[in-house]
């Protein structure tokens, strides 16, 4: 046990392990680490086209995204388990260091293949940056207090979501900064932020940790990779490969074999498992985990589809679409901070998953009425509803999972919750885009068949002013190909959509209407998934939040054990001094001096 732990014989009255000042400094470091991972998810999107053009690999850009996604998802539960064994501090330092090395290498990439490999290295660090901050919060703060502080973490997530596309667009648009190609700063900007985070962590993150003698679940780590990687791969690439192609079928088979192997290994490992199966015996943890998967699906369904709608239908640039997402981010921040304050004061959280899923459900229902002629402000109403729902769900589900397990399992419970939410988000992204691009040819064909829209196109195509405008050159070529080949219009949005930028609104109307109608189908899919989450949220049991942090619980338990051993040892010594032929009953074992164990 750490020498900083109190040795009181009255655990309930023990002093806090960390002072308020220490906790605040640690939180600053954790927020800096989380800012790194959250920013990296949004900053790359708006610059990827520029990067792919410069590295001559437009067709390979999906692998850059997939590589990061796979390694960050797979490493999340591994960080959680290892931090339970070796302590949070060394694992968080390792995560930041790996992320910074990956960022430096990514900024030096000479090809898309190199960039994919280096993004995978970044992902290995990002898995720890996503899971460990909330785990460390679970150590330091009691569940009721934790809700207050987690609102700040969601604020960091919200800010990074807004400024990420802006910074990415600025860097990608700059030919050179400090004699370095502009887009490379998308990755190099992580270095100064990461160094500051690392300095704060090294200086202030000193959490007492008791080393436990456990087996490391290497086979569990191997089988989770075998289970998750093929399924994530086919989820990302299946639409391109074909869902029934040989490559997809091979991924299905390997993934299923990996899942079976993982379950068998985890059952054999018991408490030492990477994701102990005993956690799922707890109904609160089980329901919160399933809700996390469904909410992850809905969250990514909104965050991936709405920006596309804003860019293609409303004509916003990537940077402008990031700013237009502000109502969702504000809703998320307001509801997360407000719900955190209420939980901290009342200790009750049962209502928030119900209200949160209802608001999320209402947001998708609202979006289902979206049309190509709806103004931007109308879309913002739906974004606000979705943000208000997500803000109540993200932290509440994490708190419910942490509160449902023993103090020693906080790390693995938090990382497991994050892991399954990422799985839900990945599946959501794959399903959403599969449905979207399956529907687009049908909806565009239907739009061209609409007499009103086709008349607008015909009239605009005969207007000399429209024909002489250079901005319409691209769309006129697409329309000409559509006349020659009736099926080509439906596939016009599969690749380069720049022909819509600045194009005459009447000429673009069938494409915009077709895309809007296809997007509405996606919103209905998200609505159906979140509806299941809403029903399930009523079954989430909400036991009272514990009044002590996990760290305090472990410290007090150790202090109580030491006090009991000291009493037994004193009785044993008294019997020896009195010359008793029979020493007091100490469970037939000679008591070890507690100080010798430190």
Automatic annotation (TrEMBL):
It holds the Pfam family MFS_1. Residues 26-545 form the Major facilitator superfamily (MFS) profile domain. The chain crosses the membrane at residues 21-39, 91-110, 116-137, 149-171, 183-204, 216-234, 240-265, 285-310, 322-344, 351-370, 376-398, 419-440, 521-540. Its main location: membrane. Gene3D superfamilies: MFS general substrate transporter like domains, Multidrug resistance protein D. The keyword Cytoplasm does not apply. The keyword Transmembrane helix applies. It is found in: Cell membrane. Keywords: Membrane, Transmembrane, Transmembrane helix. InterPro entries: MFS, MFS_dom, MFS_trans_sf. It is a multi-pass membrane protein. Residues 580-589 have a biased composition (Polar residues). Residues 575-598 are annotated as: Disordered. This is Drug resistance transporter, EmrB/QacA subfamily. It comes from Plantibacter cousiniae.
